[in-house]
Each structure stands twice: as C-alpha cells, then as structure tokens.
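Inverse folding, one chain.
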C-alpha cells in the first residue's frame, strides 16, 4: 500500500501508539519519534478507566482487545466518595452496561500496544493555560501489606474525599500500590516556590494544608512513600480550533489538553489515534486527498472532544469549589441514573 507515503508520529503516548498500531495493521510503516529512551524510563502514572465509546473502541480497532482483557482490573471500577471525616456519601461497585469502565494501568496499556507493533523509533497551537489547581502525587507501595488501614479505606478502586475545595483522590493500581492525588489551589508563583527539599517537609506542608481533615485521611499523607511529585494541571482553551494545514495534524493532549477531572484525556487520545489511523488507511486505499481526510478527521475529533473538554472544565471548577462534595455527588448520581 502506497510505499511512497512517509508518516511521522511525534510522541509515543497512548494516542501516538494507537495511531501507529492501526496504521501498521493495515500495512503502513509510520516512524514514531519519542523523547523518552524507553517505555519504562519514568513512572508512567496511574490507572485509567477505559470508556466504551472511546478507549474501548480504540482498543478493539487496534486489535488488542484480547490482550487488554488479560491485564484489566474489573474490581478497579469500585468507587467511593467521602467527606473530610471519611464518611462515605456515595459508593458504586461500577461496571453496568454502557457505564462499564474497566481499569488498566497506563504503563501496561502502553506495553500492550508496543508489544503488538514492529517498532522503529512542531506543531501550531494555542498555549495551554494553568488551571489554578496543582496535584501532589503520593504513593503507598504494596499497600495491603505495608498500610492495611489505608488499603481498606481506599478499597479496590477509586476513593475520592472532598471538602471545602480540597480533594484527596486515591486509586488502587495493578501492582498493589495506591496512588493518591492531593489537590492544592495555588498560584503559579506559589507552585514555583513549592520545592520540597525532602519527603518529611513535603508531608508537613500537605498536612498543614489539610489540617481540618480526619486523622485517617491525614494518615494517607503522613504514611506515604518518599516519592512525592507536585504537578501543575494545565488545559487548552475550550474551544480549541485551528486552521487545518496539509501534511500535519494534532491528536490527543496536543489537540485538546484538558484537566483530569472528567477522566477523558487518555480515552480520547486513543480514540483519536484509532480514528485517524482508519481514515488515513481508507484515504490511501481509495486515493482520497490526504489533506481533505485529515481536515474531516479534525472536525470529528473536535465534535468528540468538545463536550468532554467542557465537562472537564466544569468539573474542575465545581469539584474544587466550597460545594465540591455536593457537585461531585450529583455528577455520579447523574451517571448512575443514566445507566441503571
Ligand atoms: C494526574 C492525571 C490523571 C489523569 N487521569 C486520567 C484518567 O483517569 N483517564 C483518562 O482518560 N485520562 C487521564 N489523564 C489524562 C491523560 O494522561 C492524557 O490525556 C493522555 O496521556 C494523553 O495521551 P497523549 O498520547 O496525547 O499524550 P502523552 O501521553 O502525554 O504522550 C505524549 C508523548 O510524546 C512525547 N513527546 C513530547 N514531546 C516530544 C517531542 N518533541 N519529540 C518526541 N516525543 C515527544 C512524550 O515523552 C510522551 O511520551 C490524567 C492526566 C493527569 C495529569
């Protein structure tokens, strides 16, 4: 199939890898350029729930559904919402029909795509904007053994605790660890001054910020491992559109970076990769103009991602407001009533 066409993919994230895999399945040989030296050169982040219409659709299109089934954690769909006294205000064991959202670790998902491939190894954009929220990532390795009381509190899935604009969101990972994000509403200036010289000073800083929380939840901070990573949360403006140009396009975070508050970014990146791959393959087979095809794909990507970007921006504002617990509760009650 069109051996003269060269396709370069910049970035081997979930979006780029899904695209590369779909192209290879159809006989094309894209070259993937990646900054990192290997798929394990850094901590790959936490667990992702795969949504039916995007992440799951992409995994099927990329022909790795069977492999995905081997690493998926159905129990990871468990969800608990608590207040700052650790009282449960909502819980769900997950996994209902269209709301079926099996969890898999990001690193394992990337590996499934890499294993399926024969691997060889600039853009125009608006500037992403700092959302006003930072998340400090902490971990508890081998939680059942090392921290049974924290393991019990978190359970097998997600455990979100919200109070007065603050959030302690924990999730069980496939290696038995617990990963927790502690939110901070701080200015870019404050974030740049957030230089934790060592783990004890980072814990003290977070404990001071979360001083009016129940001791069981403060223990999540107090007893965390020494690997403590502050991250600023950025998003592209909503809507984010650009004039289509021949020979180049954007997918995933490069096209529609959004905060994690809707849990959609990785799912959309994979959808983009799968759909762009299929569109390119069809264009090459049928001789369609490639620029027309990428411009049409960009419109579909925009239509798919816009409502999720709006939801993510809305959730960030409401979940981190004084009434965040109520907002989060009504969000999950709405989802659960849509999928009884
Ligand atoms: C704390 C947090 C929690 C999240 N939770 C969820 C969730 O639960 N569910 C969900 O769906 N999404 C979640 N997301 C969002 C998700 O992580 C991203 O949307 C997703 O990873 C985007 O995939 P991508 O392939 O577009 O980009 P990335 O995964 O960022 O991959 C881009 C790749 O490009 C490489 N690269 C960058 N620049 C260059 C260059 N110049 N040359 C070569 N390579 C380059 C990078 O090294 C990287 O490997 C979360 C995000 C955060 C921060």
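Residues assigned per position:
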């Amino acid at each position: 199939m069109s051996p003269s066409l060269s396709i370069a993919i910049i970035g081997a994230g979930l979006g780029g890898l899904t695209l590369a895999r779909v192209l290879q399945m159809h006989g094309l040989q894209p070259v993937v350029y990646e900054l990192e030296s290997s798929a394990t050169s850094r901590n790959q982040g936490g667990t992702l729930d795969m949504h039916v219409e995007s992440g799951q659709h992409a995994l099927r299109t990329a022909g790795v559904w069977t492999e995905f089934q081997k690493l998926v954690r159905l129990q990871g769909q468990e969800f608990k919402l608590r207040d700052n006294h650790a009282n449960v205000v909502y819980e769900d064991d997950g996994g209902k029909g269209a709301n079926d959202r099996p969890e898999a670790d990001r690193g394992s998902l990337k590996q499934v795509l890499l294993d399926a491939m024969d691997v060889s190894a600039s853009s125009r954009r608006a500037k992403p904007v700092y959302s006003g929220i930072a998340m400090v990532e902490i971990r508890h390795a081998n939680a059942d053994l090392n921290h049974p009381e924290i393991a019990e509190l978190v359970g097998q899935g997600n455990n979100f605790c919200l109070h007065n604009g603050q959030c302690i969101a924990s999730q069980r990972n496939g290696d038995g660890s617990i990963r927790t994000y502690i939110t901070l509403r701080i200015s870019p200036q404050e974030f740049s001054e957030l230089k934790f010289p060592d783990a004890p000073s980072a814990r003290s800083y977070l404990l001071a910020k979360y001083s009016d929380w129940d001791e069981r939840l403060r223990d999540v901070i107090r007893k965390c491992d020494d690997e403590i990573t502050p991250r600023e949360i950025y998003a592209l403006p909503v809507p984010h559109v650009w004039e289509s140009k021949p020979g180049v396009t954007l997918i995933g975070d490069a096209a529609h970076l959004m905060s994690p508050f809707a849990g959609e970014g990785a799912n959309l990146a994979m959808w983009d990769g799968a759909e762009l791959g299929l569109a390119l393959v069809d264009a090459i087979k049928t001789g369609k103009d490639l620029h027309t095809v990428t411009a049409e794909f960009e419109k579909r990507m925009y239509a798919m991602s816009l409502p999720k970007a709006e939801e993510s921006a809305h959730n960030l504002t409401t979940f981190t407001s004084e009434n965040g617990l109520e907002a989060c509760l009504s969000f999950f009650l709405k989802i659960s009533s849509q999928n009884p």
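The chain has 13 helices and eleven strands. Residues 10-16, 33-36, 48, 135, 181, 252-253, 260, 263-267, 269 surround flavin-adenine dinucleotide (CB under 6 Å).
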